Amino acid sequence: MLEITAENVVRSWVDGWVVSRSAAPPIVEPWGYTVDVGLTDHVTRHVLDATGDAVREADVRKVAGAVRARGTWLKVFAEPAVVGPWLGPDWWVDDEPAYLMTVRLAPAPGLTAPAGYRLRTWARGEVVRALVTAEDGALAARGQIGVCGATAVADQIETSAEHRRRGLGSLVMRALANAAHDRGAQTGVLAGTPDGRALYGTLGWRVLAPLTSAKYVGPQGA
To answer: pLDDT confidence of 4, banded at 50, 70, 90?
Structure first.
């Protein structure tokens, strides 16, 4: 089984995210990957493949300096406090870091929704979705996972505010992991928020690198 490292997981995360979001296949660049997404506020994203101390200021400045289109995102696997000063005023930088995380997938038996909730999963191609609804049919929690060979990327995991702290996020994650494992995936990958990191940590996920997200907003006042 391939050893999990930050470097090979970056490519796995890109490939699985593309499957999950139905984005264009990634273009391999000298510094990482370019993915065309095609949304108004998310036209394209550039993902650098270096992580941590291997991230080079010159690479970040070069990639960011070539961007002229609003709605272009940049993903760098280093802390925002490090990356932000390299980008300048034309970029919005999320000062709350995300985290590249991974886990060895294994079956999780006994998936049962709490009383008053209903869990449903379904697949379209290589994307599996999980939905938890409340008694009145309202969305309580959801998520999806894109399976790409031996790797599966969990994506868009969320729990409605009024339904948190009831184990629903954990239920969704375990349901998605089971579905991915059934399809042959051995490794799970995701980019988690600080709140998500706490949940995923209880399920055995470990952090490989911090992740900074930045969006090109253009010259102020233009």
So the answer is: low
pLDDT above 70 for 2: no
Q: Find tokens 């593309």 and name the residue.
A: 18
Instruction: Give yes or no for a contact between 93 and 212, defined as CB atoms under 8 angstroms apart.
Output: yes
95, 213 Cβ separation under 8 angstroms: no
Q: How many C-beta atoms surround the C-beta of residue 147 within 10 A?
A: 24
Instruction: Please report the pLDDT score of residue 5 as a whole number.
Output: 66
pLDDT of residue 160: 97
The helix-helix angle for 168-182 and 194-202 (nearest 10°) equals 70
Q: Which residue has the tokens 């036209």?
A: 43
pTM assigned to the model: 0.92
pLDDT given at position 221: 47
Quick one: pLDDT at residue 108? 84
